[in-house]
Amino acid sequence: MSETIHQQQEELAKRITSHSDQEGVYETAIPSLFFIHRSNVTEPVHRVYKPALCLIAQGSKEIWLAQERFEYGPADYLISSMNLPVMGQIVKASSGAPYLSLRLEFTQNQILEVLNESQLQITSKENAARAMFVGPIESSLLDAVLRLVRLLEHPQDIPYLAPIYTKEILYKLLQGQYGVTLAQIAMKGSSTYHIRDAIEQIMNNFDKSLRIEELADTANMSISSFHRHFKEITAMSPIQFQKRLRLQEARHLLLSESADAADVAFRLGYESASQFSREYSRMFGFPPREDIKRLKAQFDQSIHA
């Protein structure tokens, strides 16, 4: 890591700390910008990543997309270019050197706007690419990110300047190593663009039975082509994708509502409570009741620590 990047990361870490002095995830005054502060290595957390740029100023993290592992730290950036069910774990953090990171969420329309307004020459590719990737951090990208973060000290400038600085960040990313991959989510005609529509359909109907023919029609592909491109982009099949969404939502409902496992299973489209319990145990390592009891105990412990 160059001395310039090291200094930029130090400033970024200080600014994140000043706006997140305690443990947690912080929504900032800048739309779609979040800070994360953790002082301990965490257990794996399952969630859906929205399209976003993720940067780490201090510490490191692992992300699992199905069976594919991504590890990144201050020398890297991570991008999720569409909604993806993942498992994440902070693997380097301490009270003396906490994990400090930021997440800047973006939309397909923002990418399209930058492509339309800039002079970047990016053409659609037939070959779909993974919708999550890790790239090497560059000083010019960090410089643009720091300008955005510094706006928090000047809230009166946020409404006007934040959209401009966000565009600059996206422009830098589109110029980078994975620019074509990122651009494809906004380019009509690309395989990624069409698979994105199918993913949105699954996201909105994950508790219902999947009809692959309908998803393939949504993506304007044959069934075999749809299966191939979907797995290339998400690292899983449509059924596996839906199953992860269902199980993540099931865990959330069991934690937040203290609901019965069988009731949650049927609400989420499972025909068999035993099948639900088997799949839940396979994904989270424990049967539903035992898992929720364990998570609540950990939460109580962290409050009274």
From TrEMBL:
SMART domains: HTH_ARAC (SM00342). Keywords: Transcription, Transcription regulation. SUPFAM superfamilies: Homeodomain-like. Residues 196-294 form the HTH araC/xylS-type domain. This is AraC family transcriptional regulator N-terminal domain-containing protein. It comes from Paenibacillus mendelii.
